Each structure stands twice: as C-alpha cells, then as structure tokens.
Amino acid sequence: MFNGLQAYLLVLDVGGPPLRSLAFAVGGFALVAATGPLLVVLPAGAGFREAGLVLCLSPVLSAPAATTVALVSRCLFTLADSGAAALGGALAWRERRGRPVPVPSRVGR
After folding, report:
1. Can you tell me whether residue 44 is helix, strand or coil?
2. Greatest extent of the chain over all pairs of C-alpha atoms, in Å
3. Which of 47, 55, 85, 103 has its CA 20 to 30 A from that of 71?
4. Each residue of 42-95: pLDDT tens digit?
C-alpha cells in the first residue's frame, strides 16, 4: 500500500485529480506489482510494471504525465534498493571486520 501511496503522491505532483487518483494509483500499482514478477523473462518486471502503471493511470492522467510518474517511480525504487544494499553491505563489512575469513573445508580429507 505504501508503494501505491508514493505513486499517488507522484500523480498529485503532475496534476492528477486528488480523490479520483487515489484508487487508480494505489490499485494500479498493486496490480502491476503483483503481476510483474509473473513475467520471469523480465528482471523485476522491468518495462511491464511501467507500461501497466501508465495504462492504469490513463483514466486520470495524460499519457506523458502517466509515463513520467511510472519512470520516476522506477527510479525512486532503484535508488531505495541501491541504498538498502549499500547499507546492508556496510553493516556486514563492519560486523566482519577484524575476524579471520573462514576457509571452506575440503571434502574427502
């Protein structure tokens, strides 16, 4: 639901009608987020999620505005994922610092 709310805030930023846009943004994002991973040939539903979101937002936004919302949403998710990965890597590095690296055991010896 929070992912759909970020799409809703983006829709408001490009001039979507406040009340009517809520259902299309939240519901549309939920729909494409749930169906995107079903396309296993596309990593993280790349392209499908954006096209689906543009289609879901078409009743309340023009095509260029809906495309802008979809692309900015993808960029925000990419930034958030990258930040989380960097934070996780930094925390793991900090946790392991100073400890010897484990050597894998050899089978059969």
Report:
1. helix
2. 71
3. 85
4. 676 678 889 999 999 999 999 999 999 999 999 998 999 999 999 998 888 888
Please state, in angstroms and as integers, the Cα–Cα distance from residue 104 to each residue in 44, 59, 76, 99, 108, following that order: 33, 58, 39, 15, 13
Q: 16: burial class by Cβ within 10 Å (0-12, 13-18, 19+)?
A: buried
Alpha carbon distances (Å) from 108 to 18, 102, 105:
67, 18, 9
pTM assigned to the model: 0.78
With a CB cutoff of 8 Å and minimum separation 6, the contacts of 39 are: 45, 48
